[in-house]
Amino acid sequence: MSRIRIPQPRPSEITPEDVWLSRRRWLGQAAAMGMLAGAGPAALAARGPDDSLPDLKGRPSPSYSLMEKPSAWDDITGYNNFYEFGTDKEDPRRHAGRMVTEPWTVEVGGEVLKPRTFDIDELRRLAPMEERVYRLRCVEAWSMVIPWVGYPLAELLRQVQPTGNARFITFETALQPEVMPGVKRGILDWPYVEALRMDEAMHPLTLLVFGVYGKVLPNQNGAPLRLAVPWKYGFKSAKSIVRIRCVEEQPYSSWMIAAPSEYGFYANVNPDVRHPRWSQATERRIGDSLFAPRVKTRMFNGYGELVAPLYAGMDLARNF
Ligand code: MTE
């Protein structure tokens, strides 16, 4: 498989490590002193991550992190999309606790030389964990800033060695109907399936995520492992993955099957291409006050310098 050349991010997009560390220290101290407390969800930021979850630390990755304050723990873990558990934003936190995440295996196969089933503990040890602050831009025109912990998906793919026929990759997610009230409703063709082109999957920004805010992922965020593909709308970032397949033909994702005129294969964040039912030009930052101005959405969610070359010459309005 050919290696892709990645242009360096603009200096303004990079957090120098000393700034990063001092900001982290400041946030930690501010939280401890209650300085972040205020009105609304910000008050809950001071409460910090859930102590009952095991720690999962990652080495800060300044070159792939935003210099923005992460959203509050309570927003990241309380305002979710995980339709298997229902369509209200509070449903995943309310119901996902019953999902069984131990034992957990991930089958990796298809067009690979070394198909293999990995145990979750094996996957956690496969590569060094990094902490990366990414923007998550949901297709519903809201966003958050999330400090994920994980490592590039490319590390896992190297283990199984995709063949020359592997042009796309699919991610199938957990289906546990007895504990997933949303599955009984025919919103999507379950299990939830997402897919990427192989070069997108191998891109260093594409993160296999095991934790958030220094803790293992809470179930509502896609425990025990999920994707984060920050230049695409959030629905591409499949949660609670159980099967990965490298394939030759472009696959159909669950959302493409459900509403082909609304959700395309690429789903790159693009302020110039409307969703048929609403504009994508601006977004609401979850946690901001109701009076805060909406944020302008940026092409590729602000990651253009890193990912635009993947789409050189493509019509992104047609390939939405
Ligand atoms: N993965 C599964 N299995 N089921 C889902 O409903 N929702 C997607 C994505 N992954 C979804 C999923 C959508 S629409 C978004 S915006 C993100 O997860 C939300 O991730 P978060 O709740 O951790 O912010």
Report on this structure.
With about 325 residues, the protein is of the alpha+beta class. It has a single domain (about 10-310), classed as Sulfite Oxidase, Chain A, domain 2 (Alpha-Beta Complex). The chain is built from nine helices and 13 strands. The longest helix is centred in the N-terminal third of the chain and has 17 residues, at about 15-35. The protein starts with 16 loop residues before the first helix and ends in a 13-residue tail after the last helix. The structure holds ligand MTE. Ligand MTE binds near residues 80, 138, 222, 237 and 238.
- What would you call the shape? globular
CATH superfamily: Oxidoreductase, molybdopterin-binding domain
Q: How many discrete domains?
A: 1
- The CATH class is identified as Alpha Beta
Cα distance, first to last residue?
Answer: 26 Å
State the total count of DSSP E strands. Answer: 13
How helix-rich are the residues, as a percent range?
10-25%
Ligands, ions, cofactors: ligand MTE
Question: Could you give the order of the helices and strands?
Answer: HHEHHEEHEEHEEHEEEEHEEH
Find the structural class using helix and strand composition.
alpha+beta
Backbone CA Rg: 19 Å
CATH architecture: Alpha-Beta Complex
Strand content: 15-25%
Largest sheet: 8 strands, mixed
Q: What are the segments in which pLDDT stays under 50 over at least 5 consecutive residues?
A: 1-23, 25-45
